Amino acid sequence: MKFSLASTLVVALAAQGTIASSWFGKPVYNKWHETELERWLSDHNIPYPAASDRKDLENLVKNNWNDKVVTPYNSWDTQTLQNYLTVKGQQAKKGTEKNKDSLAQQVKDYWTETEESANQAYGNVRDWIFDSWTDSQLKAFADKHGIPVPQPRERDSLLRAVRENYQSVANKISENAQYPGDWLYESWSDSDLKSWFDERGFPVPQPTTRDKLIANVRRNSRLASLNMQSAYASASSSAAAAQQSLSDALLDSWSDSQIKEWADKNGIKVPQGSKRNELLALARKHRARLYGDSASATAASAYGAATSKAGNNYAQATNGFAGYTNWFKAQLGMATGCEASFSSATGSASKSAASASSSLSKSAASASAAASKSAQKGYDAAASSAKSATDRVKEEL
C-alpha cells in the first residue's frame, strides 16, 4: 500500500511537471541562434568565454533572464525608476526620490511583465520593436527594403507593413530576426540613435560608439514599448472619462421632454410614466447615441462645442508620433519649448471641457451658451498651440 501511494505521488508530480512545461512552453531563447545568444549577452554586459558552446551560452542567458528581462527594474538607475512611476501616473513617495531600493520596490507594485508575457513578447519581436520608431524611420526602413506601403503612408499603415514584412526582410538578407542584429538600424543615423535616448529620458551609453548605441536601443526597446502602452492607456482613459463627464452634464441640462424627444428620435422605447431618474438612467444606457446627435439644437450646440472640439482636440494634438512624443515628454517632466506648448494645449482643452461640463449642469439654456463659448475659446487656443507645437516638432524630425 505504501509503495502504491508513493508511486502514485511520483506519477502525479511527474504529470504536473509535464503539464506545467507544456503550459508555459520552453523559454524563447532556446530557439535562438548562437549569434543571437551572444548578442543578448553582450547587450546586457554579461561576459562569456570566446570558446563557449551553445549550451554554455544558453545557460548564461537562462541564469540572467529573470534579472534582465522579467524584473529589470532592480538594476535601473533612480531617474529611470522615477520615469517609470511617472508613466504609470504615480509619484515617488516623499523622501524616496534618491533611494534606489525604495524606488525599485515602488516600481515593482506597478510592474506588469511576467515570465510568461516576456517569453511571448520575445517570441514575437516584430509586434513591439518598431513601436518607438518615428514615422520617418519607419518610412526609411520600408524604402530601404522595398516594402510597399499603401497610400497615404500614415503611421498605422507603416507599422503594419514593416511588421508583416519583417521576417521576409531578415530572410532576404540572411539575418536572424528573433533577437535582431545591427542590420535593423542601418537606416538610423547616429543622431537618430542619440535622440532616441534623449526623448525617453534614458541615459546615453558611454562611450557613444554606434555599436554601443544600437545595443542599448535594442536592449531598452521592450521597456520603451511598455511605457508607450501605459502612457497611451492612461491618455485614452482620461479622454474617455472627460467625454463621459461631458455627456453626463449634457443629460443633466436636458428637460424630461428633451430626453423623451431624443429617445424617440433614436428608436429608444421609454416606458409610460417614467420618472426623471429613470429617464436619465435610460439615456445613459444609450450614451453612445448622444455623440453627434441633434435632437435639440441648443443641446447639440453645447455638446458639439464641448466634445467635438475641446474633446477631440486631444486626438488632433496627439495625431502621429510627434504629438505622442511631446505628450510623453511632458509626462516625464522633460517638456521644453514646443513640447511645453503641446502640454499647455492639451491642458487648455481639458480645462475647457471641464468648464463646459460645469456650465452645462446649470440650466439648459444658459449652459448651452456658456459651454459653447468656453469650449470654442479653449479649443481655438488649444488647437492653435498644438498645431504650432506639432509643426515645429515635425520640422525637427
Describe the structure.
With 397 residues, this protein is an all-alpha fold. The longest helix is centred in the middle third of the chain and has 44 residues, at 210-253. Helix 2 (34-43) packs across helix 10 (210-253). Among the domains are: 1-64, no CATH class; 255-294. The N and C termini lie far apart (76 Å). It is elongated, with a radius of gyration of 27 Å. The chain has 17 helices and no strands.
Write down how many β-strands occur, each being a DSSP E stretch of 2 or more residues: 0
Helix content: 55-70%
Order of helices and strands: HHHHHHHHHHHHHHHHH
What is the residue-averaged pLDDT?
75
**DSSP helical segment count:** 17
Alpha-beta classification: mainly alpha
Q: Residue ranges: pLDDT <50 for 5 or more in a row?
A: 1-23, 292-397
Gyration radius (Cα, Å) is 27 Å
Rough outline: elongated
Which percent band covers the strand fraction?
under 5%
Main sheet overview? none
Query: What is the distance, rounded to the nearest whole angstrom, between the alpha carbons of the first and last residues?
Result: 76 Å
State the main characteristics:
397 residues, mainly alpha, 17 helices, elongated, disordered C terminus
Please give the structural blueprint:
Layout: H1 2-24, H2 34-43, H3 54-70, H4 78-87, H5 100-110, H6 115-122, H7 135-144, H8 155-172, H9 190-200, H10 210-253, H11 256-265, H12 276-285, H13 297-311, H14 313-317, H15 320-331, H16 338-360, H17 364-396
